[in-house]
Amino acid sequence: MRSTLFSAATLSLLLAGCAPTKPDTPSEQANTNSIESTTIYTPGELNEESLLDLISAELYGQNREFAQSQALFYKQAQLSQDPQLAERATRIAQFMRDAELVEQSAILWQSLDPEKALPFQILLNLYFQEAKVDQALEILASHSELTAETYGLIESHRASLTPEELKALFDLLSHLGPEQQQKLPNILLQARIQRTLQQPNKAIELLDQGLAIDSNNADLILDKARIIGIDLDDASQALRVMQPALEEHGDHRELQAFQIRLLLEESPDQVPSLVESAISRSKEDPQLIYYYALLLLDNELLDPAERWIDRLIAMDPDNSDTYLYKGAIEQQRGNTEAALNAYSKVRSGDNLLNAFARTLELINPETSGKELEDRLNTLVKQDPERIEPLTRIAAEWLLDQQRHQEAIDLIDEQLKIIPQANSLIYAKAIAFESIDPVQMLKNLELALSLDEENPSLKNALGYSMLLYSDDFESAFNLIKEAYQATPDDPAVIDSMGWAFYLSQNYDEALTYIEKAFKAFPDPEVAKHYIQVLAKLDRIDEARTLLDTLLQDHPENRHTLEAEQWLNSL
């Protein structure tokens, strides 16, 4: 029996009450993709074997056994050379999030239907996502014509590419045929690549080529204005460049938003009325109101910011997040009670954490630990999932005031609820540092026992052991394990350097600590840098670094320790 191929959707109508026949053995199941067959296949036609496989594939899919379903669709796509079956195999592989199967199926689909753009775009997107940029460029080079959708897809991955990859992509785009060179999406993408490569003038040249084709193209003008206003720091010129496009494209939100951003520096008095106009044109789109309210708040235009925050509250009174910004406005005005009242209305989520942290900035520093705990418990009841970060915020507030035992007591109360909360055990260890280093080490050991492969905890325990124990070998082994897992972490790099410093291998110590300082120049790393420089008789460099540290962090504990240590030499 032979019949023409019909769609998988049609097949599914035939399958009520049927069940797939599974391969008898694992090896048979593994070989489902094999195209070996003694059956004769005519492209575009079904035979008995095809029908059985496709019925089974549909039933596997209905039973959510997607691997078997995909394998059968792929097998029959190979044998019958039918692009619809290759598409089905590709779609199932995408649903499974199996990159290898997506690539395999999409390559087959593309070969069976080379005029169709979709399999090419699926492959291109996959290669960029999997950082297989060479393969992405290879299939791009095989297409003489690229659609606007393809240019958009490439643009969506541009930020993830290295400078070398961007240069290779630019070279490919700039050598496409004359017709492609005249396409505005190509010109725009090339310009954006040049801007990313910090070649603003070359980017402007490309944009001007595009504007010679379409003199008032909003996207080209906006990109040119951004380069002039941001990269070349000429807001006035950028505003002049934008003016014709603003007149022609009055509803272009990105043009309006960038004009307002530039005017915040050049002429802030014009901003409130322009914001009102932009929001009015959008028919009071809440997302746009939210954007402009925060922009106004960030630039300390408090009255217009409050107007739009109040409008958001009126539009959605059940959304408590907005009260965070209401509180920030009142805090900037110095209205402490009004700010605290607004922050108290934030009910959950990340904004609750922010509101709590801001609340602690405003309350009396002598607030008792009991009152602080009551505040914390109220918030935990509102959002139990955030018990750990809320507790850490409260504990850090107490530690900032050197109230270490109160911080420990507060953490202990929450640990009664979640006894294996590693972040709280770690916070408790830090609270113990200045009053009982032995307890600090015990809590770090406990935290690591609950998460044995955590490199940050290994580093924290190892570094603390360097400071507070005599077991140098165990400490250094922990730090080395952390370094092997996270070789780019500045904290771990600094710990490696400090271990070499303590073993008096100052040259090796310098290698690590200098690298850590360049990546993260905080006062503790700077203190280590000063000490190792001094040990290498580079005293002038050490004093210069100390002067900078005293200027930038004059009250920091590590700054003062570095000054005392260097002056004692």
Explain this structure.
By secondary structure, this protein is mainly α. It has a domain at 1-115. The chain is 73% helix and 1% strand. The chain has 34 helices and 2 strands. It has helices at residues 8-12, 26-30, 48-62, 66-80, 83-96, 99-112, 117-129, 133-141, 148-157, 163-174, 178-181, 184-196, 200-213, 218-231, 235-248, 253-266, 271-281, 286-298, 302-315, 322-333, 336-343, 350-362, 369-382, 387-400, 404-415, 422-432, 437-450, 455-468, 472-485, 490-502, 506-519, 523-535, 539-552, 557-567; strands at 3-4, 45-46. The protein has a two-stranded antiparallel sheet. Helix 15 runs antiparallel to helix 16 (253-266) and helix 22 packs parallel to helix 24. The longest helix has 15 residues, at 48-62. The radius of gyration is 32 Å and the shape is globular. The chain starts with a strand and ends with a helix. Residues 1-19 and 23-32 have low confidence and may be disordered.
Low-confidence stretches: 1-19, 23-32
Structural class: mainly alpha
Average pLDDT reading? 91
- Report the C-alpha radius of gyration, rounded: 32 Å
Strand runs, count: 2
The biggest sheet, with number of strands, parallel, antiparallel or mixed sense and barrel status, is: 2 strands, antiparallel
The rounded distance between the terminal residues' Cα atoms is: 97 Å
Shape: globular
Lateral arrangement of strands in the main beta sheet: 1-2
Count the DSSP helices: 34
Q: Fraction of residues in helices?
A: over 70%
Strand content: under 5%
